[in-house]
Amino acid sequence: MLKVEGLERSYATPDGLVQAVKGVSFEIPSGSFYTLLGPSGCGKTTTLRCVAGLEQPTAGRITIDGTVVAQPDEDIFVPAYKRDIGMVFQSYAIWPHMNVLENVSYPLVVRKPRPPRDEIKDRAMEALRLVGMDALANRSATKLSGGQQQRVAFARAIVRNPKILLLDEPLSNLDAKLREQMRYELQELVARVAITTLYVTHDQSEALAMSDTIAVISEGLISQAGPPRAVYDRPANEFVAGFLGGANFLTATVTEDDGNNGLAVFDGGAGSVRVALPAGIHTGDRVNIVFRPEDAALHFAANGTGNQVHASISRLSFQGGLTECHLKVGATLVRSMLHPSVEAKVGTEAWIDLNPARCTVYPARETSRL
Ligand code: ATP
User: Fold this and answer.
1) Is the pTM of this model over 0.95?
2) Measuring from atom 11 of ligand 1, which residue has the nearest CA?
3) Which of 21, 82, 224, 241 has the fewest beta carbons under 10 Å from its own?
4) Which pLDDT tens digit goes with each residue over 24-63?
5) How remote is the CA of residue 53 from the centroid of ligand 1, in Å?
């Protein structure tokens, strides 16, 4: 449905050329939910704006439903209003001088040729019913809560039945509780209308919960793309491991290897783990062992398996269902999640049990890229 190939976008600024997008390629099948996830300034909004037709790419090609809508080397640029897309932004851009129904009707009112008045009303009411806002159709747009405005913006985006829905951080203006609720609502709505969706966010939990595919972007390039679980479980590099899920990193030296597996001994003699080695890593190499906080089980005695790290508890943060535990391994901070029933005290020595199957090994040089 949407194909982006070798997309580039640069801007001339007084400080020189800024390359916001450096060659992004991806494809979204019809009806699929695709998320661009990355830190501030990585180029995700610029990518979305190029798809929307609000920015002209510097290079590459964008195809929507088989039609090329942007390709600078062929001088092709179809403007936004001719692309058949719906959009919702961070600021919902609900028009304050119109009521709810007028806001949602607007994309049909400006359509050429304009549909009959009754049809416009029926379709707008249908879109409002979908988002559960039909009872407030006559309410002034200024008298809506944040969540209601978000629903109206969504209804307005889908009222024309567009081919693609573009969502740029649509939940980030909501408070934490509403944000979580709207996350599920939005996911259900998108599934109900079965619309191809491109979603932009810097929030990893949103991306994990909502997407069919996540593309993690760093510095204008896709670092890794795949289903949420695959990207989370098998991050392709340390940037992805760190950005998606706040992984722990410990440096170690490989002291034995049999070609596939090796013994990695942590710096400062803090412990070791026997792990699968990636190609090209051998005895004597420096590596980073990466593991998730939920895979760092805490114990208060050595277990004799050799897959352990010695640490001391530096901070405990009660979070209701879980307690987040910060530990020091030498000078390195490691996070673990504890069930609140586990009694732990700041300053106590502890052992982190590592599950080798849940550890990923990277050459230590990659740390410099973080
Ligand atoms: P955020 O989450 O903060 O919006 P982002 O990942 O969406 O970040 P972009 O808005 O795409 O990032 O910006 C990518 C880079 O391009 C940034 O360095 C930004 O400063 C630069 N940039 C974006 N728009 C322009 C512009 N119109 N002129 C100059 N530089 C720009």
Assistant:
1) no
2) 43
3) 82
4) 999 999 999 999 999 999 999 999 999 999 999 999 999 9
5) 16
Using the 3D structure, point to which of 192, 207, 242 is the last residue of a domain: 242
Query: Do 285 and 158 share a domain, yes or no?
Result: no
Residues 121 and 153 in one domain: yes
**8 CA from centroid of ligand 1 (Å):** 13
Ligand 1 atom 10, closest CA: 45
Structure tokens at 228: 């949420």
User: For ligand 1, what atom is nearest to the CA of residue 42?
Assistant: 6
Q: Which of 41, 40, 43, 67 is nearest to 57 (CA)?
A: 43
Do 217 and 277 belong together in one domain? no
Residues with CB under 6 A from ligand 1: 11, 13, 18, 20, 38, 40-46, 202
Instruction: Say if residue 218 is in the same domain as residue 269.
Output: no
- The letter for the amino acid at 150 is Q
The complex scores an ipTM of: 0.95
Cα of 28 from ligand 1 centre, angstroms = 23
Do 232 and 327 reside in the same domain of the chain?
no
With the most atoms of ligand 1 within 8 angstroms of its CB, the residue from 4, 11, 201 to mutate is: 11
**Residue 340 is which amino acid?**
P
How many Å apart are CA 126 and CA 118, to the nearest integer?
12
Q: What is the DSSP letter of 114?
A: P
Distance 47 CA to ligand 1 centre (A): 10
| 3-state secondary structure string across 17-74 | EEEEEEEEEEEECCCCEEEEECCCCCCHHHHHHHHHCCCCCCEEEEEECCEEEEEHHH
Residue at a domain's end among 190, 221, 242: 242
Please give the mean pLDDT across all residues of the chain. 91
Helix intervals (H) in 202-274: 204-210, 228-233, 238-243
Please report the pLDDT score of residue 365 as a whole number: 67
| Domain of 267, in residue numbers | 247-369
Both 209 and 312 in one domain: the answer is no
> Any idea what the CATH number is for the domain that residue 257 is in?
2.40.50.100
Overall number of domains in the chain: 2
Mean pLDDT confidence for 264-277:
92
Nearest residue (CA) to ligand 1, atom 27? 11
